[in-house]
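Summary for the steering committee. The consortium agreed at its last meeting that each partner would contribute one worked example illustrating the joint modelling workflow. Our contribution is presented below. We chose a case with several input lines so that the handling of multiple components could be demonstrated. No manual editing was applied between input and output; the record is shown as generated.
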Amino acid sequence: MNEQSFNEAYENCRPQLKSYILRMTTSLPETEDILQETYLKAHNNLDSFKGDSTIKTWMFTIASNLARDFLKDKKRWPENAPDIFKEAALSDQAFFGEQMQIRATSPHGNFEMKEHISLCFTCVSKSLPLEQQLVLLLKEVHGFKVKEIAAIIANTEAMVKYYLHVGRTKMEDVFDHRCSLINKKGVCHQCTELNGIFNPKQNAQEELVKIEMARDAEKKDKEALFDLRTKIVTDLDPFNSGASDLQLHHLQHNNEVMKKYLKEK
Amino acid sequence: MKHLLILLIMTSSFALAAQPNGVAKTVKKTFSRETTVAINIKADPAIIWALLTNASDFPRWNSTIVSIGGNIRLGEKIMLKSTLDEKRTFKIKVKEMDIEKRMVWGDGQGNRVFTIINKRGSDGYCTVDMTEKMGGLMFPMYAGMIPPFDESFEHFARDLKNEAEIIQKGQK
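What follows is the complete predicted structure of the assembly.
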């Protein structure tokens, strides 16, 4: 593969790669660093790429290894991370001021519930053990096949299936218990609460009807609802969406809050 | 005489080996009690091994476990609460681990041995056997206080088969 083909291939998978690294690290500076390092490693080792896999799989392998190295000694987030973030945000006037400023001035500062669902998915997936999160994102969000994921994480297909099953089951249960969009008894209402703050003239119920997962909550089981949730995540580019500036600011805030929380714990 | 002795040894071995049908068997003796269950599972040994060694995930699929603490690693201790006696926490040491083949847990009263026999090359199944043998000179004194394990072993075997086969079918 020549340099031009490589650069074209890199540019094609760059948005997916960047979203993947962001969802793994939840840190904007780390995402930029790992993305750059992925490019350099791939570029410098282009001779070793034999075409046994696609260039996309190869890039994701390099990025996964770098993300793993960065995350291996870091604590995982608790399942109730969204509650911790809510409490921290409520006691942080400056954070809300910044959010309102982004909302008012940025072309990517709209608040949409779908975007918050995607942010929430990222935060909850951080409660899975690292390998489970990695496999879940590769399969459910980035559409890799089990065989390709086995190559990316250098493990067997059997173990990929195991990580995927356990990770998915855990995430389904967390959302089934917590998310009020799919369960009337769910304890978390942050989507609708934030929608009320950022879009006070909107009717939350009318907005919810537009989201298939919320609309079909009573008709579908938790597995099917999880598939609808991952579809929302897959369809959104967290760096280039109507609410990307607002959500990235929110995610960075969450990341800082969790760092502090885990350190104190 | 020599032939008779070999025949006796073979007969006793066959008596202890369980059929892989998920039905538990218990052999009671004065100074020991041994319960065993075996089951055929259509799954990769790696999946079965992962299920058997991931402590934090146990209560999700294993209906015989109330809670389990610690890591299932060689030489480590795990704290296990079983549905057999929910008020009691068993402190068990992981004594042997031969990856994807055999694991032994135990305490002062006895050992529990998990064996995975990979037959996937021939008929597509693994046979998983779980055997617990308790005993000792003092065993007759407390034998009556230990509940039967058969039902619990059968639940375990059924749960393991169910979960491993769901994962094996999995997604492509």
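Chain A has 14 helices and no strands. Residues 75-264 of chain A form one domain.
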